[in-house]
Batch of 2 targets.
Target 1
Amino acid sequence: MNCRVHGLDLATVFWSTFLLTFLYGIDAKIMSRSVTTDELTRQALRRTTRQWRCKLTPQYQQQAAHHWMQHLLQLPEWIASHHVALYWPQQGEMNPLDLLSAAFSKTKRFYLPVLHPWKVGHLLFTPYDINTPTVLNRFGIPEPISPLRNRLPPWCLDLVITPLVCFDEQGTRLGMGGGYYDRTFAFIRRSLHKTKLIGAAYEAQKVAPLITNTWDIPLHSVITDQKIYRCRQNQKR
Ligand SMILES: Nc1ncnc2c1ncn2[C@@H]1O[C@H](COP(=O)(O)OP(=O)(O)OP(=O)(O)O)[C@@H](O)[C@H]1O
Ligand SMILES: [Mg+2]
């Protein structure tokens, strides 16, 4: 009797283990597949949005940039800012460079991102106006030529006009995939610095809620050619 019970127990243990391994195996497969699918979705979103943006006519881009700027000018954070980072638009990105016009350069100082000379994957910010000479970096993006001592660390900026490929209403940002902005502004998470990231985009770059990675730094607001998105949960920072 004991032996049969013992035998039954062994069989139960065997089948339970088998079942658990089988189920866990499926679960693990589903989980790893969902991670892959998410990354594939991000890559597909990047590809299709960048293709769409490259086809925009110069007239459309110019008009959108004009509307975009009108929205930004209403933002209290813009009005209060002194040190503002812009970016050099690539492949149809929303163009923020009209902000360099004389009307603002009296009250604000503008900067463009440059690759950090030794901290790989990080950015520094160099003062820029329309007369500053530039040189192409290794990605073919113009960077202002300026002595190293003039470069500003990211925490000295008030406002960072941030390029993006896609965004959602919560302020999650999908960039080009290099992690440059996430690394450079990671300090925002753990400090009381006042630096605010303001996404710049066309309305069509808005997508359904994106999955947030642990390293993603959320945007404070997003400005498009049609609307201002205040990303509420990120406003407390
Ligand atoms: N703070 C960080 N420390 C280390 N690695 C990071 C950090 N932030 C991002 N990364 C790395 O950068 C890679 C790209 O990140 P992600 O896909 O979020 O890029 P992105 O935000 O679209 O890019 P970008 O900011 O350059 O436009 C990730 O695989 C991640 O490992
Ligand atoms: Mg990111």
Target 2
Amino acid sequence: MSESEDKPVQAEYDAIAAHNRIAKFYRYRTQYGDKFFGRLATRLKLGRDTEVLDLCCGTGAVAAGLASFCKAIDAVDGAPEMIAHAFADERITYHVFDIGSPDFAEWIRGRTFA
Ligand SMILES: C[S@@+](CC[C@H](N)C(=O)[O-])C[C@H]1O[C@@H](n2cnc3c(N)ncnc32)[C@H](O)[C@@H]1O
């Protein structure tokens, strides 16, 4: 058995690199349904004073859908190309971090979200 056959597929899959490559096509995928965000906002008890953290936000489809239900959203993704193609909204601040990195741990320390 070769060395690559030995490794689990997941160990070879680089999600951030893969999403950098597909970013410009991402917003053309099937979108979340019309009722989804209202139901999610209710389930999460979001309000006008709520600050939300969207981890692995991609192009911000979830953040953009929730933005009108809350005060502000910090949206984080490791793929800069996904952020470059993200939905713009004044309530969303996008950040590029690998969430497994020390830089992200430093950024998140002391912050609180809904
Ligand atoms: C399937 S997409 C989902 C995007 C978004 N949440 C949505 O529902 O449209 C997964 C995202 O996770 C990001 N991602 C994967 N591993 C990551 C990591 N370690 N740190 C930050 N982002 C990561 C990828 O770059 C990609 O944009």
